[in-house]
């Protein structure tokens, strides 16, 4: 039971880590890698911004490695929480919001529509300054109001 709690807490904490990384790294000294993500109609399958997936995958892989040595321990489940967040991020951000893959084109869910709206507001700024809505799963409630029944 403790391992499940560690995994869920890690998933939740990852939203805060992602928010901080997005605001202070991607829109800061890491703008070189993130800038192409803010350009409309980016023509390539991959973006330089995709390097951040690797940045988050490395700690997860290391935690899996050390989480089974000398036997299964809590580090494995921290790595699992990071992996689960990465999967959620990919499905929400790249599939649902940016539609890099056409898997969930016809969603009518108020929560997912609110996330899309918040991210659209984030992308109205083409530069690294004056950004807003840096979160991915938890965004201000005002973006959900129009879609709630």
Quick overview:
Keywords: Carotenoid biosynthesis, Membrane, Oxidoreductase, Transmembrane, Transmembrane helix. This protein has helices at residues 2-29, 31-34, 51-66, 74-97, 110-123.
Low-confidence stretches: none
Strand element count:
0
Domains (count): 1
Number of distinct helices: 5
Counting helices, strands and paired strands, the structural category is mainly alpha
Alpha-carbon distance between the termini? 36 Å
Fraction of residues in helices?
Answer: 55-70%
Determine the strand fraction and express it as a percent band: under 5%
Taken from the alpha-carbon principal axes, the silhouette is globular
Overall pLDDT, averaged?
A: 87
N-to-C order of helices and strands: HHHHH
Largest sheet: none
Gyration radius, rounded: 17 Å
